[in-house]
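ok trying this again, last paste got cut off
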Amino acid sequence: MRRSIRLVLALTLISIPLAGCGDDGGGDGDGDGDGGMVDGSVTDGGGRDLGGDPVDAGPPECGNGVLEGDEVCDDGNEDGMGCLDGCSRVEDGFVCVEAGAECVPIATCGNGRIEGDETCDDRNETAGDGCDDSCQREAGWVCPVAGAACSAAKCGDGLIAGFEICDDGGECSGSGDGCTADDDCAGDETCDAVAGDGCSASCTLEDGFACPTPGASCETTECGDGVPEGTEECDDGNDQIGDGCTPFCVREPNCTDGVCEAVCGDEVVFAPETCDDGNTLDGDGCSSECQEETGYVCTEVPEDPPDSVVLPVVIRDFIPACADGNGDITPRLQEGEGGAAPPYGHPDFQCFNGEERDMVELDLVGGVPVRSATATRIESDASFALWYQSNADWNRTVVQGMTFDRVGGSTTYQFATSEFYPLSSPLDGSAPAGFPTEGFETLSDNAGEGPEDDNFFFTSEVRFWFRYEGSETLTFTGDDDVWVFINGKLAVDIGGVHGAQTDSITLSDCDSADPGMNDGGCISALDLMVGGIYEAVVFQAERHTTRSQYTLTLGNFNRAPSVCVSECGDGIIASDEGCDDGEDNGAEYNGCDADCNLTPFCGDGIVQEDFGETCDDGLNLGAGPSACAPGCMDVGARCGDGVVQIENDEQCDDGNTEPDDGCDEECRIELI
């Protein structure tokens, strides 16, 4: 390119006197033969008096697009880019090939080629993706292929990179000491990421942990503290279900008549979501905003039936206002009675007996049942309103996990016990809770069903959501009151104070909005459509000694969350792939193997002698910050190595030394 630039300058210099000439007599074109002079002074052209001394043409004008005087460049402007300091200096990293034309950068970050002092180029100028906004590789990343995305260097190095969600460092393979690199370990020990400490061996969060500081130990999270952390999808700080966030910190769908508002993380796909895998984490194929991630295809797949399913159950403990002949019971005064103080005795517990249907209205109001005006075994509307609402003056609220076991090899799940005393004998192994633990209530005899007395007088509430397919069934056996609502409508009614009774429903018998189209035994027209998402709620109450039994059987209520799978070989790098060269997969060196893992490559910092490498310093620029040349076969920079070495006066390097392709054999820009 040196010859090309000299040629351009020569042509420019030749054109200057020609532009000043008029006719072949050396005049200024006005016919007076004065060569652009009038009375010895310059009038036009800036030329010379051919018959006398040179005339001063004045100082050069920087920015006019013409090389004048001692200017070394003039790109036709003074914008401070490329040509600087009054056209006296070419900015480092730029070349000004032709006067009047824009100076161009030798190294352009974001063009997918490593140039100048760049150590990476991933085709963008965005920091935080492994290659920063000046095309310098960021700590914790590797950028093996120019123009391709960077990826995490290693899980366990204490740096969050690539698709890692966390990285709390690793442990030395022998001693178990904390580390972030092999050099932190003794001898031949390696520093490896481990699971069980909050951040898995693949650098994803584990349940019950948050890892806010890379390289530091993870912290346990507390569901219910009102602060969503770690794998918690939500945390509203209460023990309610049906309010959008379960007491287990899992998002609930918000559905009306089978149509749900899109809530990312609830395992239900509704526009504008393109997937929903039941969490709000990035990097697993379905993003934190429930959009398919690059390289993945997400489909809604019914879950393989697990051995068990755990649903949250909200239990509210009450103190009876009556004894009804039971000497184990010490009732408390009701609100308004002389000397009464919270917690008050509730008039609906141990005060009634006998079964009764139609005690509640057919539709939920505000998510809870409402007392029917004809009910005789409930004191009042106000007393019933307390059954499924938390109120410290009347009840204590406890949340437990209710485990439903799979029945045989079917898709039916069942929770069953003949001793349903979740406050004195918690379902999930937690500590006993409720008023007896506070000294406000004594335990009662359970009619010989166990060696110890138990805590009666409570309500329970279980909610779950399902995609209606037309084959769902529900059966309940127990005492006392039980009401099941599907899509907000009463479906099962076993009201009143009684021994264990059984009722069931096959949803397809009652799914029409037209009562005339449903089975004659349906309580309500449920108005269900196949494919719609609906809520089922089981409300129960234990109001009288001396027995408490509970069996709930659910058939075919499985969900179908999104399952996102990457396809190795499609040419798109997904979060669980180190690379993907499409049809070129299967390489052993400097490429991508058949399983979409990076092979050894020039730039991995390891001298791969089996593949002919003689050096590898991780950058391999041949000069500047590294000595190993591109290709890892020799040391030092050279024209044709594909890296623009500005310090060696290169203006370009297209990986060859062929002329007439825009970059000549001396790595100088050519005008084609």
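PB: full thing came through this time. The longest helix spans residues 2-20.
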